[in-house]
Amino acid sequence: xxxxxxxxxxxxxxxxxxxxxxxxxxxxxxxxxxxxxxxxxxxxxxxxxxxxxxxxxxxxxxxxxxxxxxxxxxxxxxxxxxxxxxxxxxxxxxxxxxxxxxxxxxxxxxxxxxxxxxxxxxxxxxxxxxxxxxxxxxxxxxxxxxxxxxxxxxxxxxxxxxxxxxxxxxxxxxxxxxxxxxxxxxxxxxxxxxxxxxxxxxxxxxxxxxxxxxxxxxxxxxxxxxxxxxxxxxxxxx
Length: 238
What we know:
With 238 residues, the chain is α/β, with parallel strands linked by helices. The protein contains 8 helices and 6 strands. Helix 3 packs across helix 5 (170-179).
């Protein structure tokens, strides 16, 4: 919800639609953004959600950019499906967060080939990007160092051409078929920007070890650079 609010303030000429299942009374900041931001209270666990949001986009009848911040689990796959199915959708920006459960239907085995959650996360990001590799879709994945979490991937996709009858690629449809309707009830929960405290709450012991090792490596590198600089200054003084 805060993502939508920030976009509304930064780009007043853009029409923004935020979607959540909580009552509007729980999101008072939208009252100040009535000019270019609307709020739709929709239950994302409802199998009719896809048709409802596509119908709403057709009523607005403007090019659509889909933005998914901190999408947990297979919710990223649902966002990809929406990108393919919505004819008006021109761009998709995904910021994946938590991984899908290891034993959940449709979860790729390659994601959990080791116990380091950072490595698992990178493989999950690569896996998501592979579903956006159609010849008529341009996809780029970057990692933003300004984010406070190591899960900082940003997947950006642009349709190079518009299809008159949008279809979901067979590779995506196959995974969605494995996931099935239970995925909606399990993973289609609130999609919103979260705090660093929230991200740390998802941290497992394995992830903690990976993070501490990376931080130690970074500190050792900084210490080495400092020593080299100090020795160079001492030599110059002599």
